[in-house]
Specification:
Number of strands: 2
Strand order of the largest sheet: 1-2
Strand content: under 5%
Radius of gyration: 18 Å
Helix content: 55-70%
Number of helices: 4
Largest sheet: 2 strands, antiparallel
Shape: rod-shaped
Order of helices and strands: EEHHHH
Oligomer: single chain
């Protein structure tokens, strides 16, 4: 058993929020920071992919800029991202960002 750091209530081991006061536990805070770090990496690599594709032709920019905008907006709003968009990101925009998106579970985002 663990205890709430705010009110001292006894918590179950798998609890992420105190049922008495609603304070998040340390397990939830650690998980949330991992998601924020992964989100930042995805955004960085997608922007790098846009910049790199811009040096070649204008046609790749027609794919990479809209995908980058959509993915960044969905990550910011904690909306689910479909597997098709993740794979298109992998193929057309950025290999690293696509792999990170496929490894990140964005289907059940919660605040």
């Amino acid at each position: 058993m663990k205890y709430c750091t705010k009110c001292g209530a006894e918590l179950h081991d798998e609890a992420v929020v105190c049922p008495r006061c609603g304070c998040a536990t340390s397990d939830y805070k650690a998980h949330s920071s991992k998601i924020d770090d992964m989100t930042l990496l995805i955004k960085i690599f997608m922007i790098i992919g846009c910049v790199c594709s811009g040096f070649g032709l204008l046609l790749p920019l027609a794919w990479t800029i809209p995908m980058t905008v959509v993915v960044c907006r969905r990550l910011d709003n904690h909306e689910p991202i479909g597997t098709g968009l993740k794979v298109c990101t992998l193929i057309f925009c950025s290999l690293i960002a696509g792999i990170l998106l496929l490894c990140t579970n964005t289907d059940n985002y919660t605040d």
